[in-house]
């Protein structure tokens, strides 16, 4: 079993526990927003990730940093959950736990998540058209677009919904042509 699978197996019960707490307290939407905020801050700060994952840093130091970083921006439920992760030495898995939690929360809300990589930013009209097309393709009631910009795509975009990937990028087309030429050459 790879280490990534082990991390996912460890993260699952924590994500489920947070979702159950959020449902019980009727704060699922707030906790989901909190988790998205935490993920956003973590993705922007490599130093914070390294600090939280460092086993040489004390539990108290990690708690102080979490309170200073997130304290006034997230609910007490989410903050308490982060403190439990620190106490149980699972804070280094926060990103995986957060991803798992959001996946479960979106499933509960019948929400389909589409990861979009695009070479340039999409305007709101393009986002709305893309959302409608994805709703038709997946027969989902709601679609959440997670958009990231990747200039290496040259042009176009890729869509990932679960394990399905749709690649309309120029980079993908060039890769396909190169693959085809390799097959023809052999």
Automatic annotation (TrEMBL):
Gene3D superfamilies: N-terminal domain of the delta subunit of the F1F0-ATP synthase. Its main location: membrane. It is found in: Membrane. GO terms for cellular component: membrane. Keywords: ATP synthesis, Hydrogen ion transport, Hydrolase, Ion transport, Membrane, Plastid, Transport. InterPro entries: ATP_synth_OSCP/delta_N_sf, ATPase_OSCP/d_CS, ATPase_OSCP/dsu. It comes from the Eukaryota. One of its GO terms (molecular function) is hydrolase activity. Its EC number is 3.6.3.14. Belongs to the ATPase delta chain family. This is ATP synthase CF1 subunit delta. It comes from Pyropia endiviifolia. The gene is atpD.
